[in-house]
Amino acid sequence: MLFSEEKKAVIVGYDAISPLGGDHAQQWRNAVAGRSGIGPLTRFPLREDFPVRIAGQLPDVDHLSYPFLTARHQAAWHSPVFKYGMLTVARALERSGIQIDSGLAPRVAVTYSSAVGGIDAVLTADRRLQAEQKLPHPYANPNSCINMIGGKVAMLTGAKGPILSTITACATGLTSILVGAMLMAQNRADVVICGAVDCSLVEPILAGFHTMNGAYLPKKGEENEPPERASRPFSVDRRGFVVSEGAGAVILTTREFAAAHGLNPSAELAGWGMTSDAHHFVMPAEETVRQCMIDALGDAGLQSGDIAAVNAHATATRAGDRVEFDALRTLFAGRLPPVSANKSLLGHAMGASSIIETILALRGMEEDLLLPTINYQPDPEMELDCVAQGARPLVQEHVLKNAFGFGGCNACAVLRKLV
C-alpha cells in the first residue's frame, strides 16, 4: 500500500450541485427516481443553425443564498465557477463539522480545480473589445484563471496549507481527491478541501464538442427525441455525450485526525491508480485504462471479486464506452459486478463529473442503494448489468470509481464503506 494506515484518507463531508438539483437532498431524490437533469438548452439565445440544442443545466442556483459573498464580490467575481465552487465547499465543510481556526489553517490544503474554468470571462472580455471597443473588466483575467478557483476557496475558508489546481480534463474532480490524499500521505496536511467545478455551457465549447463528434447528435429523422432520452451510456443506440455543468466538494482528513477530533467518516479512499494512455488525445487505450483499475485494486489490497459495484466513467460515446467495458470485462474475468453510469442522469459536466459521481457513489454506499442507469438499451457486444430497472438495494463495502479524461488522463479509486 502507498499510504500508511494513520495517514489514509477518509471522507468526512461532501456536497454537490448538478442538473439534478441545487442541493444534495434534491439531487439524491431525483437520481434514485431515475429522473434526468437534461433538457432544452436555454442558457443563451440559439441561432437556427447552432448544432447543440440540449444540455444539463444547473437549476435555480443563481437564486440561492451565498452568505459568504457580498454583492461587491459577486460583481467582481462574475464567472459562475467561483460562487458555485465556493457554495459546495461551504456546505461540505459544514457537513464535516470541521472548524478551521488559526491553529489548524496551516494544515488545511486545497485541491480544487476545473477543466474549463472561467472561459465565459474570456468571451465577455473579447466581446467588449470587439463589439464595444472597450477594455476588459479589471477582474477579467483573474476570473479566467483556473487556479483562482482554489485560491478563492482558500480565502473563503482560511486554509493556508498547500494549494493545487490539477487539471486532468474529465478526470479532474477525482484527481483532486487523489492528489489531496497524496498530500496527507506525505504529512503535508491533515485536512484537504477537494473538488471541481465546470460551467461550460458557452457557445464555442458546445460547438467545438459537436465538431469533434463527441457531443450528442440525434439520428437523422429523430431530431425531436426527448432531451431526457439523449444520454444513454453503454446502450446500443448511444449517440455521444450531453454537455452539462456542476460542482462538487469532498472534505478529506487523515484517519488519525478524524479519530482525534471525533469525526465520523462515511468512507475511506482505500486505494487509487493513475495512468496515462500515451495514445491519442481523445481515444482511450484499453490496456492503460485497465492498468489504472488494477493499480487501484492493488493499492487497496483487494481482488476484483471484492468490488460490489462500479461507478463508471461512461460518457455514451461509441468508442469510449466500449474501451471501458473491455477493460472491465478483462479485469473481472467476465464476472462483472453491477455497473452504474450516472451520466445517463447528469450528462457530462466535464471536470466536475467525477466529483459529482463520486459523491453519488458515497451516498449510495451509505444508503445501501445502487443508482440506476437510465435510457439503457442492451448492446449485444457489451454484456453487463447496468442497473437498468431502477435503483437497487445493494450493500456496497467496496466501490470502484472510474474517471478518464482527454489527453489520456486516467484516474481510478476504490472507496471503502465505514458506516
UniProtKB/TrEMBL annotation:
Pathway: Lipid metabolism; fatty acid biosynthesis. It comes from the Bacteria. SUPFAM superfamilies: Thiolase-like. One of its GO terms (biological process) is fatty acid biosynthetic process. GO terms for cellular component: cytosol. Keywords: Transferase. GO terms for molecular function: 3-oxoacyl-[acyl-carrier-protein] synthase activity. The keyword Transferase applies. It holds the Pfam family ketoacyl-synt. InterPro entries: Beta-ketoacyl_synthase, Ketoacyl_synth_AS, Ketoacyl_synth_C, Ketoacyl_synth_N, PKS_Beta-ketoAc_synthase_dom, Thiolase-like. Residues 6-417 form the Ketosynthase family 3 (KS3) domain. PANTHER family: 3-OXOACYL-[ACYL-CARRIER-PROTEIN] SYNTHASE, MITOCHONDRIAL, POLYKETIDE SYNTHASE-RELATED. Belongs to the thiolase-like superfamily. Beta-ketoacyl-ACP synthases family. This is Beta-ketoacyl-[acyl-carrier-protein] synthase family protein. It comes from Thiorhodococcus mannitoliphagus.
